[in-house]
């Protein structure tokens, strides 16, 4: 049995066609998965924008919706570059995260800042998932020497990171203090159920996932 070092050396020397084929299949599967993810995100972001309380949060979701549409087109370009048809691979992960975002809309008071806080928590969870999958795709693209695909993926990865930074800044600027003020005036009325959904350690009035 070959050692890990020997297998890696064989792969990079071009003598391990089995590994090359397997990694290419893995790249394609994850490409299809993130394609599904982005198309689902476009619809979800429109719903989140409509449900938002403040103009700032609503506009953030509208901007990200357009960005996601551009990212879908970029993924379709990658499909063309590698010579396969653009197809979706269903992702239970993104379906679950979008379900959580819809849960926030259903279980928070319309017009409350707590709703915006919950939507930002849900949006950042989606961003972190997308950052992880784009990072993995970029690594695979480099290993497979998919230079053009890697360049496109790197652009999208940086966009996702920047969106996450913007969401954090938005949260820190007014959502945390606004939600805390609501809780002081109406103890427990707005987000008692939010804590049960996001876990006992999360508190939208004290930061928690908003500060990630």
Q: Which characteristics define this entry?
A:
single chain, 212 residues, mainly alpha, Ferritin, 7 helices, disordered C terminus
Structure characterization notes:
This protein has 212 residues and is mainly α. It has one domain: Ferritin, core subunit, four-helix bundle (Ferritin), CATH 1.20.1260.10. It contains 7 helices and no strands. The chain has helices at residues 4-12, 17-51, 55-82, 92-107, 113-143, 147-185, 192-198. Helix 2 packs antiparallel against helix 5 and helix 4 (92-107) runs antiparallel to helix 5. The chain starts with a helix and ends in a 14-residue tail after the last helix.
In a few lines, what is going on in this structure?
With 212 residues, the chain is an all-alpha fold.
């Amino acid at each position: 049995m070959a050692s890990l070092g020997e297998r890696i050396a064989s792969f990079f020397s071009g003598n391990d066609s089995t590994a090359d084929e397997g990694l290419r299949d893995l790249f394609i599967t994850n490409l299809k998965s993130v394609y599904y993810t982005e198309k689902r995100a476009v619809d979800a972001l429109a719903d989140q924008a409509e449900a938002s309380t403040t103009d700032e949060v609503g506009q953030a979701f509208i901007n990200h919706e357009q960005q996601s549409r551009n990212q879908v087109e970029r993924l379709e370009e990658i499909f063309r570059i590698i010579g396969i048809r653009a197809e979706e691979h269903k992702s239970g992960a993104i379906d679950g995260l979008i379900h959580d975002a819809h849960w926030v809309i259903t279980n928070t008071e319309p017009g409350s800042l707590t709703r915006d806080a919950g939507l930002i928590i849900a949006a950042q969870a989606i961003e972190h998932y997308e950052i992880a999958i784009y990072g993995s795709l970029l690594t695979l693209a480099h290993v497979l020497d998919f230079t053009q695909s890697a360049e496109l993926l790197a652009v999208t990865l940086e966009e996702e990171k920047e969106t996450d930074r913007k969401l954090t800044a938005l949260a820190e600027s007014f959502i945390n203090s606004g939600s805390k003020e609501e809780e002081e005036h109406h103890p427990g009325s707005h987000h008692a159920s939010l804590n049960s959904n996001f876990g006992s350690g999360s508190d939208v009035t004290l930061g928690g996932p908003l500060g990630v």
